[in-house]
Predict the structure.
Amino acid sequence: MMDKALENEIKTFMAQQLASGEKLSDLQNQVNEKFNLKLTYMDIRILASTIDVDWKARDPQPAPKPEAPAEEKAPEPVPYDLDEKPAPDAASRPATVVEVSKIVQPGTLVSGTVKFANGATADWYVDQTGRLGIDNLQGPQPGREDIEDFQKELQSKLR
């Protein structure tokens, strides 16, 4: 436990260093050397949390992504509406292919990939509450029949 005067002196030093762009990880060494202490990174974090610093301004801003030419831009996501697309004749449709991953992803009970009959691909998962989810959809939105085929194939694979 340090006395209040030393703590205030350290905070003043830290505020000056942070204002000049120093990182907290670098501050740990500087404070320990300047004040002949052995503070941990967590000690520095706790002290820094009491200093009036604009932390959001210190976060590195990601570089803006270059704008793709109009013809290469991905289509805007369309709200999912199962009734929107008419289903082609079932006999002429390719099969929906569902694969179950042997590796269990964190937060899921089971997961895998699907290639819908319309050519779209996606990752799927069943979370720990039993909810089915689809991520990373590539290609056109699956229609009602695509989703139904996926659910039937998935049930078949999981039996």
